[in-house]
Amino acid sequence: MEKGIEVIFDGFFKYHKQDFYVEEIPAEIIAENYGTPCYVYSKNSLLSRISSFKNAFRSVNSLVCYSVKANSNQTILKILKKKGFGADVVSGGELHRALLAGFPPERIVFAGAGKKEDEIELAVRKKIYCFNIENEEEISMIEKYACRYRRKNILCNLRLNLDIDVDTHHYVKTSTKETKFGLDIFAAKDILKKNMGNRYVNIKGFHLHLGSQLKDVSPYMRAFKEVRHLSDETGFRPEIIDIGGGFGIAYSSKDVISNIDAFGETITRSIRDMGIKTLILEPGRYIVGNTAVLLCKVLYVKKRQGKNFVIVDAGMNDLIRPAFYGSYHTIIPARKNVKAGGWMKADIVGPICETGDYLGKDIVVPDSVKKGDILVVASAGAYCFSMSSNYNSRPRPCEVMVDGKKSCLIRKRESYSDLWKHES
Ligand code: LLP
Q1: How much is the pLDDT for 1?
Q2: Ligand 1 centroid from CA 194, angstroms
Q3: Is the shortest distance between the CB of 245 and ligand 1 below 6 Å?
């Protein structure tokens, strides 16, 4: 049984005696009222993450653009917008979602290695704040639509691939030369030279997103060093640096992640030293990751010699991170059976017809665990609902937000007919 869950959760998720609460509501009651599987967000936990992030970067001129891919629910986006965040989008769909939530276009940045022409047109037409350029051909497309919509000086940053290795899962490293992202130094120099007097495309700086779930600030420092070299070599003085996202969170009580204030302080100091006017940040996971849990119900317990399985009603279609990256999520019971005493190790698996369909391996659970019990999968706010699918023709779970003693549905559970509504 996971000890020290306070490392993962802030005070808004905790046990009161034997019951696990989201703010002031027992998880079992939420499961009863809304059914399972069910994503449950704590509004006050989200507000607290927003303010700790803002606070960490308060002493530098910055634009914080929440990375919509982490969780794109309209209620969450609207809360972030209200708190003054901008949005980092990577597709026409995310741009539309951000605009629908009310983010002002002048606070929206657009990244992505495969921007489609219609997406570039949409972003030019909607007058977003800036493009993060990953390919020289994007520039000519931006010029084309700048001409068509009579716009000049469209702000762009060059996304650099500085071949910097980072300590994270290899699927979410984005700045080594093996990855598809960004421009190498030679391409960047060439683009800077060619576009010096460009009246449509105004290159003001660099975008450096290095990877996700980074544990400390050191890779960013290496990136800044490279930027200084590039600047010395070309004479180009960046006004803007967008460091992307990547700030890690604890998934287990053993995870050691640098504190956000220390992160902020080191980055702020370097940004000042480099004479940068505006720092752009694109946090996703840090903001929402630990502000939600996934509640699921035990369907069966299968005990075999040497191997136990707890089969629950949430699967890899609902939360794919363990199956896809081998990620660890803390899983705890919604009600601790204080009398039971004994514990067992079990794989927490879903109902999907794949061996890789698991939420946790060798998880310590009460050995009294039985059909109908509710389990809580922690750290389910980022890249969980947003990566869910209908695989095995399973309707997606509902999403609920808790605020103190109140709860409300922020996305209803999909129905069976939703599964085929687009088919002919
Ligand atoms: N900016 C850019 C350009 C990005 O590609 C990403 C994430 C972010 C910002 C936000 O990064 P964050 O602050 O959330 O680390 N599905 C994976 C994570 C993929 C991250 C993709 N890019 C996972 O579940 O771990």
Answers
A1: 56
A2: 31
A3: yes
Handedness of CA 377, 378, 379, 381 (dihedral sign): positive
The dihedral built from the CA positions of residue 54, 57, 59 and 65, taken in this order, carries a sign that is negative
CA–CA gap between residue 264 and residue 3 (Å, rounded): 29
Q: Is the pLDDT of residue 341 over 80?
A: no
Cβ(49) – ligand 1 distance below 6 Å: no
Q: CB pairs under 8 A, 24+ apart, for 77-81? A: 77/101, 77/103, 78/102, 79/43, 79/46, 79/47, 79/50, 80/50, 80/287
Dist CA 185 CA 136 (whole Å): 13
| Residue-wise pLDDT tens digits, 278-290 | 999 999 999 999 9
pLDDT bracket for residue 270 (50, 70, 90):
very high
Cα gap 407→28, rounded to integer Å: 13
Cβ proximity of 131 and 146 under 8 Å: no
Report yes or no: 359 and 312 within 8 Å, Cβ to Cβ. Answer: yes
- Cβ neighbours for 110, distance < 8 A, ≥ 6 positions apart: 89, 90, 95, 119, 123, 128, 130, 131, 132
CA of 63 to the centre of ligand 1 (A): 17
> What does the alpha-carbon distance between residue 81 and residue 102 come to, in Å, rounded to a whole number?
7
Q: Please work out whether the CB of residue 383 comes within 6 Å of at least one atom of ligand 1.
A: yes
First and final C-alpha spacing in the chain: 48
What domains are defined for the chain?
5-42+289-417 (2.40.37.10), 43-287 (3.20.20.10)
Minimum CA distance residue for ligand 1 atom 1 = 244
Is omega for the bond preceding 37 within 30 degrees of 0, making it cis?
yes
Please, which residues have CB within 8 angstroms of residue 88's CB and are 6 or more apart in sequence?
65, 66, 67, 68, 69, 108, 109, 111, 245, 282, 284
Task: Report CA 218 to chain centroid distance, whole Å.
Answer: 21
Is 353 tagged catalytic? Answer: yes
- Least Cα distance to 131 among 104, 151, 114, 112 occurs for 112
By C-alpha distance, which of 87, 89, 69, 90 is closest to 79?
87
Q: Which of 212, 377, 385 to mutate to test the pocket of ligand 1 (most atoms within 8 A of CB)?
A: 212
